[in-house]
């Protein structure tokens, strides 16, 4: 017993018509369906029309046409990761551009690919695409000059698609095309179009491929053979008509008229035959319903795919473009990537299940760092300060070159640490100075601010600057100088260093420059002085004058800054945004580069960084130092 499965797929047929090569040019129509299962699934059945013209006929055009076809194949079937829609458009665009430049003549390419029920089309160089549907002709694509246009859609039963050169659509108006396609016969259309084309002078660049889509339903076919010995000859049942009940009655009547029972043993055979026929009928009826159910499901699946395929194609295109623009236009790259992620999340939230959607989601996850600059990290314990000195509590942390120092204000202790090796030593003990308010470090020299002045500390505490300022001040060491921010009086002073001594304070801000530092939050120096305020603004001062500075390309924006850090050796400025549990890296012109996020950063107090060691180190409330590995360098 053998069953042949029912099918509801389109029957795709085509005719290819080209003019004879002459002074008008040379054309070729191509039709290719790959044997490879994977290629067929993702690239489908390819049709292409190619035309070249340089004012002379002969082998040059023939060779060029074949080379164009080979390149089109290479581009379209080469990279199977790109969606068919964009792979086809990109292939036509690239090949048209390449050969127009190398041959210095007009190149026309029109291509269509039928992939899993969807027809993708792309036209360039003047080619066009039309559809004949419901006795009407409609333009789908019209390309002009170097422009390549593309479209996609679901064919309907009895649709006829035409891909043709510009010459073809000049010769045949829509009225003539409609007349030649009426009745849906490709043979008739072939005779009508080919006859006209071959009678034209200079028709070498006139060509078209005509593609028809029809559906046919093949019901299961039953083949049986029953042998009944003695007086009953063998009977074959080869098919069952759609009306199952009528078919069974006909079989029953046939047996009642032609079979005569002479002995009881033959009645048993007849009864067996009737049961066989009835069983087969039931099976076929079940298969018919299964086939109908399958067809309904297939239509629902196609309708569902039609509802999202354009969005998915757009998301895939945006993703590919965002990758191309990473270095050329990072801001636009991130915008396209964000749009892609938004579309993918929307489709997933609607319950869409599609292999391409799953693949795109995975690509987005892999590329968030390289394109968006967003890294979800797990900080590693760098150093537990309590292990270095009993009950040490880190209040402030500073760094210079490849060293850092941490201050415990109440215990009047300072610990200095080499970033690379974590080698540490206590450079200030509680018996060396009566109080400590702030800390600074530069080139292995550690300075502390006390109520009576500034001290350099190490083996002993040496006062280098006596107090002649107000109460609310902070210090910073840079290039052998000590800088002081007087928050109360809105001043910045510089104490110029000469060996182990320092001169008197000088107003660093330019004459007439007045600023309000009441909302001060953090500062850092790399030659310019950077000051962050509580309202999340960052001011940059160059040679005593405020310079324009604005953060660009960061999302979400910063509402509150906890700390900033850079130095003359670093390429980027680093910002601690504890509210959003992240550290942000921007270049020194304000362009966003990267952000590192983890819930632990909500408890971070301050940060320092080493691009040489590729580390971001932050201090937490529980006096532990954690490190983050940089990935944006």
From TrEMBL:
Superkingdom of this protein's organism:
Bacteria
Q: Which UniProt keywords apply?
A: Membrane, Transmembrane, Transmembrane helix
Keyword Membrane: yes or no? Answer: yes
Q: Does the keyword Transmembrane helix apply?
A: yes
**SUPFAM superfamilies named in the record:** NHL repeat
What sections of the protein cross the membrane? 277-296
Give the protein's recorded name.
Answer: PPM-type phosphatase domain-containing protein
Q: Which organism is it from?
A: Candidatus Woesebacteria bacterium RBG_19FT_COMBO_37_29
């Amino acid at each position: 017993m053998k069953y042949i499965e029912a099918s509801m797929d389109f029957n795709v047929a085509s005719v290819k018509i080209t003019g004879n090569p002459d002074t008008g040019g040379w054309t070729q129509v191509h039709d290719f369906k790959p044997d490879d299962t994977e290629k067929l699934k993702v690239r489908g059945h390819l049709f292409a029309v190619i035309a070249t013209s340089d004012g002379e006929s002969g082998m040059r055009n023939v060779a060029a046409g074949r080379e164009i076809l080979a390149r089109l194949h290479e581009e379209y079937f080469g990279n199977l990761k790109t969606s068919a829609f964009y792979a086809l458009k990109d292939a036509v665009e690239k090949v048209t551009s390449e050969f127009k430049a190398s041959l210095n003549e007009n190149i026309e390419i029109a291509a269509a690919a039928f992939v899993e029920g969807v027809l993708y089309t792309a036209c360039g160089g003047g080619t066009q695409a039309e559809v004949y549907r419901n006795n009407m002709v409609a333009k789908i694509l019209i390309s002009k000059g170097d422009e390549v246009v593309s479209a996609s859609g679901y064919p309907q039963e009895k649709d006829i698609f035409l891909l043709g050169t510009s010459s073809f659509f000049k010769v045949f108006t829509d009225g003539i095309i409609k007349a030649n396609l009426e009745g849906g016969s490709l043979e008739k259309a072939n005779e009508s179009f080919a006859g006209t084309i071959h009678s034209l002078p200079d028709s070498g660049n006139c060509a078209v491929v005509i593609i028809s889509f029809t559906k046919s339903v093949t019901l299961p076919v039953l083949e049986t053979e029953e042998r009944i010995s003695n007086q009953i000859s063998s009977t074959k049942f080869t098919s069952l008509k759609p009306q199952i009940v009528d078919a069974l009655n006909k079989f029953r009547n046939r047996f009642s008229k032609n079979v005569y029972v002479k002995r009881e043993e033959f009645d048993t055979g007849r009864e067996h035959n009737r049961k066989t026929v009835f069983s087969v009928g039931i099976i076929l009826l079940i298969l018919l319903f299964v086939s109908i159910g399958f067809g309904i499901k297939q239509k629902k699946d196609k309708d569902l795919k039609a509802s999202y395929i354009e969005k998915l194609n757009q998301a895939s295109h945006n993703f590919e473009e965002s990758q191309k623009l990473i270095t050329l236009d990072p801001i636009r790259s991130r915008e396209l990537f964000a749009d892609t992620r938004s579309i993918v999340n929307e489709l997933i939230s609607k319950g869409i299940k599609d292999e391409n959607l799953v693949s795109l989601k995975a690509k987005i996850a892999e590329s968030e760092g390289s394109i968006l600059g967003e890294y979800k990290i797990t900080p590693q314990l760098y150093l537990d300060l309590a292990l270095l000195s009993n009950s040490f509590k880190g209040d402030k942390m500073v760094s210079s070159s490849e060293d850092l120092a941490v201050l415990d204000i109440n215990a009047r202790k300072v610990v200095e640490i080499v970033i690379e090796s974590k080698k540490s030593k206590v450079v200030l003990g509680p018996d060396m100075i009566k109080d400590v308010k702030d800390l600074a470090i530069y080139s292995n020299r550690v300075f502390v601010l006390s109520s009576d002045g500034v001290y350099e500390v190490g083996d002993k505490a040496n006062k280098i600057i006596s107090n002649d300022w107000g109460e609310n001040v902070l210090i910073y060491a840079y290039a052998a100088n000590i800088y002081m921010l007087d928050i109360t009086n809105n001043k910045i002073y510089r104490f110029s260093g000469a060996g182990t001594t320092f001169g008197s304070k000088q107003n660093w801000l330019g004459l007439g420059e007045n600023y309000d530092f009441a909302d001060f939050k953090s500062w850092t120096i790399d030659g310019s002085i950077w000051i962050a305020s509580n309202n999340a603004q960052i001011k940059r001062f160059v040679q005593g004058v405020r310079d324009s500075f604005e953060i660009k390309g960061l999302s979400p924006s910063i509402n509150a800054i906890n700390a900033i850090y850079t130095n003359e050796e670093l390429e980027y400025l680093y910002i601690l945004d504890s509210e959003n549990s992240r550290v942000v890296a921007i270049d020194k012109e304000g362009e966003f580069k990267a952000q590192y996020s983890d819930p632990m950063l909500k408890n971070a107090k301050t940060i320092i960084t080493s691009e040489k060691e590729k580390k971001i180190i932050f201090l937490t409330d529980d006096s532990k130092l954690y490190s983050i590995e940089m990935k944006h360098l």
